[in-house]
Amino acid sequence: MLTVEWHHILLLLHIGQTILYGSYKGRRELLWLSGCILLALMLGMAFTGYLLPWTKKAYFASAVGTNLIAEVHGLGRHYSGSYGAAIRWEH
Which of 7-11, 27-31, 40-44, 57-61 holds the top average pLDDT? Predict the structure, then answer.
């Protein structure tokens, strides 16, 4: 496995432990919120970094990811726009 995959696995285990023990409550709430922001940034960088090689695999993985946004009830149509239809794969 790649190092990045291990990083994601360990991060999910850490989040599970934090929720299980309730460590995010009380005076650590701001720390928990900053961690959630860092998680969102990390996942965003992982998603956009996957497209960098610009291969067919990267293209279709990014197309699936952007099309998943359209399935979110209430927000999907607003945020997805026409990006899925605008990107075309050319040989």
Answer: 27-31
Residue length of the chain: 91
The model scores a pTM over 0.70: no
Terminal CA-CA length for the chain:
31
Query: In this structure, are residues 7 and 45 in contact, taking their beta carbons and an 8 Å threshold?
Result: no
CB environment 49-66: b (16+ within 10 A), e (fewer): eeeeeeeeeebeebeeeb
Round to whole Å and give the CA distance between 74 and 56. 30
**Backbone angles phi and psi of 30, in degrees to 5:** -65, -35
The stretches of 22-91 forming alpha helices (DSSP H) are 29-49, 56-69, 76-80, 83-86
pLDDT the model gives residue 76: 63
